[in-house]
Amino acid sequence: MSERRDDKAWLPWAIWLGGLMPAAMLALRGFTGDLGANPVAEALNACGELAIKVLLLCLACTPLRIVFGWTWQMRARKHLGLLAFTYASLHFGIYVGLDKVGALSSILADIVERPFIIVGLTAFLLLVPLAVTSTKSAIKKLGGKRWNRLHQLVYVVAVLAMVHFVMRAKKDTTEAYAHGAVLALLLGVRVVDRVRRRSRARTVTA
Ligand code: HEM
Questions:
Q1: Rounded distance between C-alpha atoms, residue 42 and residue 61, angstroms
Q2: Counted domains in the chain
Q3: Rounded to whole angstroms, what are the CA distances from 103 to 63, 106, 107, 124?
Q4: Are 186 and 59 in contact (CB under 8 A)?
């Protein structure tokens, strides 16, 4: 029996409640002084890692449909994208507000010294138009085709975020490359699917 979309009306709630739990735990640990010797760096890194993990979950929705034919997770895609943006915003906010305390000169000096920051900043800036146009009214206004084209940017964001992660890793790059491998797999499934669909369409027209 095919699954109706409304069968999973609870899914967005589960994503937001479950997805914001790590942020709440971080805040609690921050207030109780349980974030270690460098609480700002701990919170900054935790939010960066959560942003990248949720972004990968968001990008996994379509490959899951392609490979297994599942559709229920498509309802989660938009919420996972917005949750990833929330964590990226927290990551950015902690860096600017707590780590650099809003000092532009210190941020600029840091960017020169650690170029991975500019890569992260580019990824974040590209995420903003995607978050802003995630509403139904924005889809209507832009039209499906233009909206889809704009939202292809999410792959650029994911690649930049991965580069940011790999460049930032000091000695042990295993975790960063493991995330990169997952992204490569997800992108690979989409590329193979696109090639297959194109060749099928060509056969039909022939
Ligand atoms: C989509 C956007 C972004 C994602 C997904 C992301 C992800 C990450 C990840 C996964 C880490 C490493 C965490 C770890 O090793 O445990 C990290 C570190 C870092 N990110 Fe980002 N980031 C993004 C945007 C930004 C932006 C906009 C900035 C600042 C302008 C930034 C500044 C930093 C800094 C300074 C660190 C290293 C902190 C340290 O060495 O202690 N990131 N980020």
A1: 29
A2: 1
A3: 42, 5, 6, 19
A4: yes
Q: Whose CA is nearest to atom 5 of ligand 1?
A: 52
Domain that holds residue 147: 5-205
Distance CA 74, CA 192 (A): 19
Q: Chunked in runs of 10, what are the mean pLDDT values of the chain (206 residues)?
A: 64 97 97 96 97 98 97 95 98 98 96 97 98 95 95 97 94 94 97 94 83
**Cα(33) to centroid(ligand 1), Å:** 22
- pLDDT given for residue 86 in this prediction: 98
Using CA atoms, how far apart are residues 30 and 17, in angstroms rounded to an integer? Answer: 20
Neighbours of 145 (CB within 10 A): 8
The three-class DSSP label of residue 70 is coil
Report residue 4: phi and psi, to 5°.
Answer: -85, 145
100 C-alpha to center of ligand 1: Å? Answer: 14
Q: How far is the CA of 157 from the centre of ligand 1 (A)?
A: 13
